[in-house]
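Sequence, please.
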């Protein structure tokens, strides 16, 4: 995902906007997305059908640690003392959520699953959940549309007005919030995909292992279709989130949304309330709070021009474009790091990058 994020950042720095390429036309994104998709398909098969929760929970926590490491190596995120504390908190929180947020459930026949879907409690819960997801989906798409429109209008401003809504919310903050919203959407949709996949897998297990043919029913294949559709939506929204938000913020929040949604989906759909003790739910909520605290540590950035990962990539791009001007580079490095920040409108780096953008616009 770090390479997908880097591909989006590099593409978003191309001006004019018409020269930007679709994700499927960028080799870096295609290769990284293919690798991510393959790993998730293989991992999902084992996680759903074979591995117990005591193994899956630490794996989920380690995934977030490797995400932070990849962000450092690929995207240049600074690995400070605050970053270390944030990563530790996220790992502990993810471990609590993954360990206590899953309850084992025996296999069911198609008739059992249909009866579970018909329950009044599940219908009410599912209706509320889908309404929330739909409203969030529409609102986030609209905010992204407004963001893109305002960004395009401000390309000709020198310097661009980076504040919105009465000069209280910056463009970078709005972009991050949109990315977080997409990440949470991806987590929620992914939990529904897991519910459909688990139900469908149970039917295939009954058919193949126990000889009880469940594949002759239309509902079985409807579950398969819904699994594919929700999985595709999850990948779509996760990719949109990666374009808008730093990975060290997006991935942990999406992970929490996925696990908490899975927990309540199972509680309502399988009626597992009698299997969940109060201290288990308390541990899950505590894990969510700890994870959010870790995310806050990682997102504690200096300045508000653009996100940290965009800042680093912009600095790399600036260095490459000006590698012949070594004397000026040495002078810039002697100053305070803020003066080198392309998000700081008074810095030489910002002026050069913005001047390059205007050259593209006037060409």
């Amino acid at each position: 995902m770090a390479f997908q994020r880097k591909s989006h950042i590099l593409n978003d720095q191309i001006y004019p906007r018409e020269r930007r390429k679709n994700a499927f036309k960028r080799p870096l994104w295609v290769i990284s997305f293919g690798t991510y998709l393959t790993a998730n398909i293989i991992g999902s098969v084992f996680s759903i059908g074979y591995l117990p929760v005591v193994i899956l929970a630490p794996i989920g926590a380690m995934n977030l640690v490797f995400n932070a490491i990849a962000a450092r190596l690929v995207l240049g995120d600074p690995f400070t003392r605050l970053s270390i504390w944030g990563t530790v908190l996220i790992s502990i929180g993810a471990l609590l959520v993954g360990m206590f947020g899953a309850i084992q459930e025996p296999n069911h026949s198609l008739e059992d699953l249909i009866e579970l879907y018909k329950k009044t409690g599940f219908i009410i819960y599912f209706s509320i959940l889908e309404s929330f997801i739909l409203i969030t989906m529409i609102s986030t798409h609209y905010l992204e549309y407004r963001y893109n429109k305002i960004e395009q209008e401000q390309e000709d401003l020198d310097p661009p007005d980076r504040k919105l809504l009465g000069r209280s919310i910056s463009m970078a903050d709005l972009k991050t919030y949109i990315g977080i919203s997409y990440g949470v959407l991806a987590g929620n949709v992914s939990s529904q995909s897991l519910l459909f996949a688990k139900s469908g897998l149970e039917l295939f297990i009954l058919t193949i292992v126990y000889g009880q043919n469940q594949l002759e029913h239309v509902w079985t294949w409807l579950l398969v279709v819904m699994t594919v559709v929700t999985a595709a939506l999850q990948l779509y929204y996760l990719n949109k989130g990666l374009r808008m938000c730093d990975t060290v913020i997006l991935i942990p929040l999406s992970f929490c949304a996925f696990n908490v949604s899975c927990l309540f989906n199972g509680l309502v759909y399988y009626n597992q309330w009698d299997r969940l003790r109060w201290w288990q739910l308390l541990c899950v909520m505590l894990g969510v709070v700890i994870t959010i605290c870790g995310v806050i540590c990682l997102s504690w950035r200096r300045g508000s021009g653009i996100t940290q990962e965009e800042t680093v990539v912009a600095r790399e791009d600036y260095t490459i474009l000006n590698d012949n001007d070594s004397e000026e580079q040495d002078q810039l490095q002697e100053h305070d790091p803020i003066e080198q920040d392309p998000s700081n409108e008074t810095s030489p780096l910002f002026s050069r990058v913005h001047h390059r953008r205007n050259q593209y616009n006037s060409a």
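The beta strands are 163-164, 169-170.
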